[in-house]
Specification:
- The complex is a heterodimer of chains A (764) and B (231).
- With 764 residues, chain A is α+β, with helices and mostly antiparallel strands.
- Chain A has a domain of 177 residues: Alpha-Beta Complex (Phosphoribosyl-aminoimidazole Synthetase, Chain A, domain 2), CATH 3.90.650.
- Helix content of chain A is 38%, strand content 22%.
- Chain A has 28 helices and 28 strands.
- In chain A, the strands form 5 sheets. A 7-stranded mixed sheet of chain A has the order 8-10-7-11-9-12-13. A 7-stranded mixed sheet of chain A has the order 23-25-22-26-24-27-28. A 6-stranded mixed sheet of chain A has the order 1-2-3-6-4-5.
- In chain A, a hairpin with a 3-residue loop joins strand 27 and strand 28.
- Chain B has 231 residues and is of the alpha/beta class.
- Chain B has one domain: 3-Layer(aba) Sandwich (Rossmann fold).
- Chain B is built from 5 helices and 11 strands, in the order E-H-E-E-H-E-H-E-E-E-E-H-E-E-E-H.
- In chain B, strand 3, helix 2 and strand 4 form a beta-alpha-beta unit.
- The chains are: A alpha+beta (764), B alpha/beta (231).
């Protein structure tokens, strides 16, 4: 052992008792005076420096959810027994687990890595993927796919390229090396994210019911084993320093604190863990992410209602000069902590040795609910683990509707100029579909492996990603994620529901049945009452929406402090919906593959242009109210799609959202180079709306479908019977042209080339 | 027919290669990098991935693994070996095939459905294809640019060792559009694209007929079974 055992000034519990008035850097570590006093009350003395490090990092916003907790509770409260009956593990664990039938369960979660990805885009994004994948692995699951939700600053800003290049390369590098297919995600550009890019990563894993693992240490005598990469100086203080403070150019210089990832080590760790699970030698398991050992030890003990005795000098180090406090706070990646019964020690060692993974036994589980950590002979931590891991501070922060809100909502698109002539409409259509947010994302997604695993049934640019879970039965899952910060800014309650509705609809268009929800709530500073109001509205909207749609939230993540100076990002609640499909062969493509099919628009189109892409691209305008939320219509629509899919009536289905019908038509035709002749006059007359709204309105609960002639009568009957508004708007065609009657006609090659050129022109 | 699929630490497509063997009618046998025993397999697949983290050079460390010592020895005696992507890099590092593979010309990892032309059907892994046939195989690599000195290139062209060439798009800047090679004997074939990802309708590359319906990769595996049966 080469640890720094000679460190002189180790602050022990004995020392803490004898020097009650010693000054401690609680403030620098991000604690408030009341919080520091609370720690002293819990311990009956001042904390040692190691304890202070643990509490400060575990009580940071990022780890403790202290500002969001009172709102997150409603995800567990606004539920019916019907909604939770398939939930094997709900919120609070590393990730929620959903029973999908046939003895299978899936676990999925989305998490942010926003602040590190701004400082060091490549490593920030890479370790974001690594962290979420370990969360999934911790539940006993084999990770089977990843997705990412990216938001960058204005494309023309010179700093955006640095962030885009780094983030995409980081995700590509880490995800591809892990052997996980990247099946979808989002890429959005908006100047509100300039100094605060959002890098959210989602992972999903599959497990047999009996393989479920929990992060708890409950049996006294079990060994506490740290394995995987060695512990180094990376990410020290990353959690509290990076996630809890706003970037401020006038503040003190922060030591670079972003972790560095090694996907090779993680890939080996995944296979090693899965083999450990299979051998049933692990009683509890926890990954080491934010807050490192502080988090893993206290959470395992707290979850197991037990305690732990740990010898910190047994931790294998990359850097011998690390102090005990730094070892406790290190966020070195690719590490796991296992709770192993003594009788299984030899079997455990055989497996980790096979994978050439290093490990060290740190200590053992004890009955007394107390966490003791020693540095050699000196006791440096002696705390009730629950007070570190779960009973942190909870704040009910002030909320106030933003002063600008009413004026913003009054400033609608009503008086914005609308195109009068076919030429103008045609020009606007091209402007919209080639704008950076609407253009093809191939430049980015072509850098991700979506084949590995051999189970990918749908991936970008389809509405949802879909993977097969069971090769024999073809049981599978679909996932879609969505968020629209512009809608959120106009109305955060509706904004969250619109994100939910879109993800729900995307899953339904794939042919899967929506089953569960995860979220990543990206907001500004919770200390700003106006941001807190947005957060309160968004969480209420999401919880109410999930209740109405009958699908539970299984977990999620909150990222606050996404702001530069006083300017916060738009409220950006990323919502992920997971669906189940009994046979992935039944999946519905989003692109058109055959000529001669009827094209139908399901749903009603209204004059809803506030917050739309049209208002942004054509008029650089944001104001008014977002499209109406129509959850009952979404439900009916999803059920109709489901029924049509089971009967095999649909050749394709594509959801309408940002960019409206125009965007969906361009995407559906260019996907497989199958043209269409489309006529929109009936839509205009029937819905009494402008031509601009016909093409670009973002009314919800709408889906574009194509149906073969032989299924036509049946499908139309199915929709009419269910009260789904249905309008035939055209027919697919062998001619590779998109013709919108009385407006314009474009060769598909032209449309595709224009759409695919945008991102390379900006970033290649 | 027993076909071994090697797993190095960092191998990613081993389970996919095993599935491909199974779908072709063979019996996949997992082989472990640290084990010199090939368990009497009739052929070997070196699948894709990032063996040993691609440290040093892609495939360089794997080429020194215990299992490779046996594979090199047997390959020189005629054992059919297919190297896919990282497996191709391992074959090159093992000197079972000439040349080298460098970072893609555009510096990015690339994942796309790639059309290849089959230029040689007299190998253990290509005998079920038609000469000149165009096949669609997913390609996904960061370091797939094939290079060789002019002498070697001349020999590859002259001796008809180029087995696959990229059609329409050269995705990684490979010299002479080289996507894959064979050795003189035809038992060893290496290529950057991934045939094991084009073996099952619904999960393969997009084809004109239907989305994800491409199964051109299956013929690599039926070819080797065919050549073993008729050996």
């Amino acid at each position: 052992m080469s640890n720094n055992k000679t460190a002189t000034n180790v602050d022990t519990t004995k020392e803490a008792k004898s020097t009650p008035d010693k000054h401690q850097p609680w403030k620098e570590l991000g604690l408030k005076l009341e919080e520091y006093d609370e720690i002293k009350t819990i311990l009956g003395r001042r904390p040692t420096s190691a304890e202070l490090a643990m509490y400060s990092v575990m009580w940071s916003e990022h780890c403790s959810y202290k500002s969001s907790k009172i709102y997150l509770r409603q995800f567990g409260e606004k539920v019916t027994p019907e909604m939770t009956k398939n939930l094997m593990v709900g919120m609070g664990e590393n990730a929620g687990v959903v029973d999908i039938g046939e003895g299978w369960a899936v676990t999925f979660k989305v998490e942010s890595h926003n602040h590190p990805s701004y400082i060091e885009p490549f490593q920030g994004a890479a370790t974001g993927v690594g962290g979420i994948v370990r969360d999934i692995l911790t539940m006993g699951a084999r990770p089977i796919a990843v997705m990412d939700q990216l938001r960058f600053g204005a494309p023309e800003n010179s700093d955006t390229r640095r962030v885009v290049d780094g983030v995409v390369a980081g995700i590509s590098f880490y995800g591809n090396c892990l052997g996980l297919p990247n099946i979808g995600g989002e890429t959005v550009f908006d100047k509100v994210y300039q100094g605060n890019p959002l890098v959210n990563a989602l992972s999903v894993g599959a497990l047999r019911h009996e393989d479920l693992k929990l992060a708890k240490a409950s049996n006294p005598g079990d060994l506490v084993i740290l394995f995987g990469a060695r512990t180094g100086a990376d990410g020290i203080g990353g959690v509290s320093v990076l996630a809890s403070e706003t970037f401020d150019s006038t503040g003190p210089t922060k030591r670079p604190a972003v972790q560095v990832g090694d996907p090779f080590a993680e890939k080996v760790l995944i296979e090693c863990c899965l083999e450990l699970y299979k051998a049933q030698v692990v009683a509890g398991i926890q990954d080491l992410g934010g807050a490192g050992l502080s988090c893993a030890t206290s959470e395992l003990a707290s979850n197991g209602q037990a305690g732990m005795r740990v010898q910190l000098q047994n931790v294998l180090l990359r850097d011998d000069s690390l102090t005990p406090e730094e070892i406790l706070m290190s966020e070195s990646q690719e590490r796991m902590m296992a709770i192993v019964p003594k009788k299984d020690k030899a079997a455990f060692e055989a497996i980790v040795n096979k994978w050439e993974v290093e490990y060290s036994i740190l200590g053992e589980v004890i009955k007394e609910p107390r966490l003791y950590i020693n540095w050699g002979d000196e006791e440096i931590v002696n705390v009730p683990p629950r007070t570190v891991a779960h009973d942190g501070p909870v704040y009910d922060r002030p909320v106030a509707e933003p002063k600008y809100q009413k004026a913003l909502n009054k400033n609608t698109t009503k008086n914005l100029a609308k195109a009068e002539t076919p030429e103008e409409l045609a020009t606007q259509l091209i402007q919209i579909v080639t704008s950076p947010n609407q253009a093809s994302k191939n430049y980015i997604t072509d850098q991700y492996d979506h084949y590995v695993g051999g189970n990918t049934a749908l991936a970008m640019p389809d509405d949802a990603g879909m993977v097969r879970v069971d090769e024999t039965s073809s049981l599978g899952i679909a996932i879609a994620t969505d968020a629209n910060g512009r809608y959120g800014q106009l109305d955060p309650y509706a904004g969250a529901q619109l994100a939910l509705a879109e993800a729900y609809r995307n899953v339904a268009t794939s042919g899967a049945v929506p089953a569960a929800v995860t979220n990543c709530l990206n907001f500004g500073s919770p200390e700003n009452p106006e941001v807190m109001w947005q957060f309160k509205q968004a969480t209420a909207g999401l919880a109410d929406g999930c209740l109405e749609l009958g699908i539970p939230v299984t977990g999620g993540n909150v990222s606050f402090y996404n702001q530069t100076g006083d300017t916060a990002i738009h409220p950006t609640p990323v919502v992920g919906v997971l669906g189940v499909i009994d046979d992935v062969a039944r999946r519905i493509p989003s692109g058109w593959q055959d000529a001669g099919h009827n094209i139908y628009l399901l749903g009603t189109t209204e004059e809803e242009l506030d917050g739309s892409v049209w208002s942004e691209v054509i008029h650089d305008h944001l104001g008014g109210l977002p499209p109406k939320v129509k959850l009952q219509e979404e439900l009916k629509l999803a059920q109709a799609l489901q029924a049509a899919s089971v009967q095999g009536l649909l050749a394709s289905a594509h959801d309408l959202s940002e960019g409206g019908l125009a965007q969906a038509l361009v995407e559906s035709t260019t996907r497989f180079n199958v043209g269409a002749r489309v006529y929109l006059d009936e839509l205009e007359e029937k819905n009494k709306i402008s031509k601009t709204a016909v093409l670009f309105s973002e009314t919800t609960a709408r889906v574009l479908v194509t149906v073969g002639r032989e299924d036509d009568v049946k499908f139309v009957g199915l929709c009419e019977q269910r009260g789904i508004p249905i309008t035939r708007i055209g027919v697919t065609d062998t001619e590779p042209t998109l013709e919108i009657q009385n407006i314009a006609s474009w060769p598909l090659a032209t449309l595709r080339a224009a759409s695919e050129a945008t991102l390379p022109e900006l970033f290649a | 027919m027993k076909i071994g699929v090697v797993t190095f630490p960092g191998t990613l497509d081993d389970r996919d290669a095993q599935r491909a063997v199974r779908l072709a009618g063979g019996t996949p046998v997992p082989l472990w990098h640290a084990d010199t025993n090939l368990h009497e397999v009739d052929a070997v697949v070196l699948p894709g991935g990032f063996s040993y983290g691609d440290y040093l050079r892609c495939g360089a460390i794997a080429a020194q693994a215990p299992v490779m010592q046996t594979i090199i020895e047997k390959a020189n005696q005629g054992l059919p070996v297919l190297g896919i992507c990282n497996g191709f890099q391992v074959l090159v590092e093992s000197h079972l095939l000439p040349g080298g593979l460098i970072r893609n010309e555009n510096q990015h990892f690339i994942c796309r459905d790639q059309i290849l032309e089959v230029e040689n059907t007299s190998t253990a892994w290509t005998n079920q294809f038609e000469l000149g046939q165009h096949i669609t195989i997913p390609l996904k690599n960061g370091e797939g640019g094939y290079i060789a000195d002019s002498e070697t290139l001349k020999r590859l062209e002259g001796e008809n060792l180029i087995t696959f060439r990229y059609v329409d798009v050269n995705p990684n800047g490979s010299m002479n559009n080289i996507a894959g090679l064979r050795n003189e004997r035809g038992n060893v074939v290496g290529l950057m694209p991934h045939p094991e990802h084009a073996v099952e309708a619904g999960f393969g590359p997009d084809m004109p007929a239907a989305m994800r319906s491409g199964v051109d990769g299956l013929k690599f595996f039926t070819s080797v079974i065919h050549s073993l049966v008729n050996a």
